[in-house]
Amino acid sequence: MLDQVSAFEARPAGRSGPALDVRGLSKRFGDRVAFQDLTFEIGRGEVFGFLGPNGAGKTTTVRTLGTLLAPTSGSATVAGLPLAPENAVEIRRRIAIMPEAPGLYLKLTVVENLQCFADLYEVPHPRDRIVSALRAVNLADRGQDPCGTLSKGLRQRVALARALLSDPEVLFLDEPTSGLDPVAAREVHELIDGLRKQGVTIFLTTHRLEEAERLCDRVAILNTTLRTIGRPSELRDQLFAKSITVRTLNPLADPGKVFAGLKGVDSWHMDGPTGGYVLAVSDPSIAAPAAARALVEAGADVLSIAESHHSLEDVYLELIAEDSEASGREA
Amino acid sequence: MSRRRIWAIFRKEVREYRRNRSVIYGMAILPLVFAIQPLIAVLRVSTEASGGLAHEHVLLYMLGIPTLVPVFVAAYAVAGERQQGTLEPALTTPIRGEEFLIGKALAALLPSLVIAYLVFAVFVGIVEVKAAPNVAASVMQPVDLLAQLLFTPLLACWTVWVAIAISTRSSDVRVAQQLGVLASLPPVFITVMIALNVIEPTPALAIGCGALLIVLDVSGWRLVSGLFDRERLISGSH
Q1: Are residues A224 and A245 in the same domain?
Q2: Model's pTM, two decimal places?
Q3: ipTM for the complex?
Q4: Which of A298, A304, B63, B117 has its CA 20 to 30 A from that of B198?
């Protein structure tokens, strides 16, 4: 698929400044707050993950940045243009949004759907663009199929092809792999990788945390307000202390004596029922060799010493759990 | 205003109608209802009784076609897109509200005009061929022919705007169609009253009705443009 993606032209490094610059943006519907005080910046060519539970305001944020909804307060620059009613048409020309539901005209064929959108975007050489877009999503041979006859996964791919038609500077993808089988999801991931290499900025809304971790340069976690933002590794480091896990064949007779005072080890505790030991460390590269030496000196049969890894999912669950606890306390 | 974007919407709409049986049946059956009854009535009139027809305006019944046929497609314009989830992708493109509405309106108006004039031509042709000459002459009153030609687009245009206006405020296509038919009934009522000679057709009345329809058509466009609010259509807020 990567070769097919290259059918799209590499983006010239024309415009300067961030692809998206959001400052204190809020949106309310009457008394209900959809999202509040969002501030972040996304560089050109960056793949930015936007995570959050249902109702967190992700889709409303996308719709607001896509000029479909007017913000209640705050400001933003989208694809180099201030988010304002007078710039709405030009902003929509520079971006593309793929909503969660494909929203295809089911009685029209795939090509007819794309033809309609190529004309709405006033794409030059629409036939060539349609062929390139269909190749990019591996649907070149399904162009004459009515969209109503396609599976959910194939419809999702048509929607993605539609989003690629206008060669957007910023591509908003709302759950692009929702409903796709693993192979199709992987193809979409490769497509996103390919687009990133061509300088397309991608704003990816997803529930799949492993997808965000794999694809995104940075992620933001939203729960009406922005809970955190950064590279997945930074978020893990911010939220979780570094640790190494030690496993031995038999339990240590006096683990406190073995681990206490070891260079680089701040504290330790038993690792639940598995019989291991978790050492909170400041620097694993110092603590791990020190622990290995101490274990050997104590006569322990060491099975493994490994640095503990927290996934983005751990970060996400921790933050969302904090929010739930906070709202529970307020109630 | 981009012609290409208007054309994109128009072509998409026409393609969808052609593949939608309920739309085809709706647009086909209604004109037949308005054409067959007066046709039978005319063909049954004997030569001796043809004088009575000169005081009736049978042709004006046919104005029901441009008044009601566009409802079927125009009511679908926005509500249908919302219902099938295609409105949001369309509105994320650079299309302006006016372009979207004009594309939709033309896609409802032009096929309706073609149907209305076609059925009218067939009606006239059958009357000329099958009816007795003096019966045909009584039916084909020049004033009625002129009224048919002039009022068809004005009435169709009014119906299109009314139905699209209802469609922008409705989330259900059937409800929009039913309300659209109801809203289009006043012109049908006036036409029937004229056809039955309850209201006497005069040049002044024709000019007055024509002027009123032009005003209503322009107001309809302004009303629909005002009702077309992306935020409300996307978020469903009122």
Answers
A1: no
A2: 0.79
A3: 0.84
A4: B117
